[in-house]
Write a structure and sequence with these properties.
It is a single chain. The protein has helices spanning 4-17, 22-29, 32-41, 71-80, 82-89, 136-151, 171-177, 196-218; strands at 58-59, 93-104, 107-117, 122-132, 161-168, 184-190. It is α/β, with parallel strands linked by helices and 225 residues long. It has one domain: Trna Endonuclease, Chain: A, domain 1 (3-Layer(aba) Sandwich), CATH 3.40.1350. The chain is globular, with a radius of gyration of 18 Å.
């Protein structure tokens, strides 16, 4: 760890999650702080998603998936190793339901995973995608969040948020859509863990690019003159 912020992050996470001695070492080796910082850097101003809620990318190497898997295979693997998945997603998450059924205009819709974040007191809708991010996923998740907000949100809870997990994100599309303002986060998942030095290099590059995109958004446009 190279910063006081990272040390403080792991210390607070260990207390909040009641980690054993091995868990901080695992978190440090898997660069949890750096991935959380990367996710926060991509939210930008006006986000309805609280900082430190999600990571990017998610390291799902423990699922044992190989090339050629389907979305159903990904879902089954997550449910098989649910405890490890929830630890990877972050602290404070609990499992609610799989294939959450929603009836809209007499038609059935099914959300892949429904989680609950206890500290934030809000539902978390998770959609699993095996390919690259598609802009059409935005409308699907917005529909699910509106339905959950109307039918599943309890008194005292905050508005639901959404997480779209893709094998690959299209970061320019995600930036242009500004889904974080509607409470939607898009993140990659990796089913194979690269070597430690390569992981660190890739995360540093992604973080630098995210900060550059955020800086461009904050620059005044010519119309502001």
């Amino acid at each position: 760890m190279r910063s006081d912020d990272a040390r403080e992050f792991y210390a607070e996470a260990a207390v909040a999650g009641r980690w054993t001695v091995r868990e901080p070492r695992r978190a440090i080796s898997r660069k949890v702080y750096e991935r959380r910082e990367l996710a926060d850097s991509q939210l930008g101003p006006g986000s309805l998603v609280p900082a430190d809620t999600f990571s990017d990318p998610y390291l799902l190497d423990f699922l044992g998936l190989h090339d050629g898997y389907l979305e159903a295979d990904l879902e089954v693997a997550i449910l098989r190793d649910l405890e490890a998945f929830l630890l990877e997603v972050g602290t404070g998450f609990t499992f609610v339901e799989r294939q959450k059924r929603m009836v809209i205009d007499g038609k059935d819709f099914h959300l892949d995973l429904l989680l609950y974040h206890r500290p934030l007191r809000r539902l978390v809708a998770v959609e699993l995608k095996i390919g690259e991010f598609d802009a059409r996923y935005e409308g699907q998740m917005k529909l699910y969040l509106k339905w959950l907000n109307r039918h599943e949100r309890h008194d005292g809870e905050e508005a639901p948020v959404g997480l779209i997990l893709c094998a690959e994100t299209s970061r320019e599309q995600v930036e242009l859509l500004e889904m974080h303002k509607d409470g939607i986060v898009v993140a990659e998942y990796w089913t194979a863990l690269p070597p430690k030095h390569e992981l660190e290099q890739r995360l540093q590059l992604m973080l630098r690019e995210a900060r550059e995109r955020l800086a461009r958004r904050e620059l005044p446009s010519a119309d502001d003159d």
